[in-house]
Amino acid sequence: MSLREHVKNGLATIVRGFLLGVGFSIAAGIAYFIAFQVAMSSMKETTSAYDVAASGGAAAKDLVLSGVEEQKHDNVTSIIGSVKNTGTKPARNVHLKANLFDHGKFVDEYSTYLSGSLAPGQSEYFKISCGCKDSPPAAHDSYKVEVSTGY
Question: Considering the domain 60-149 in this protein, what is its CATH number?
Answer without folding.
Answer: 2.60.40.3230
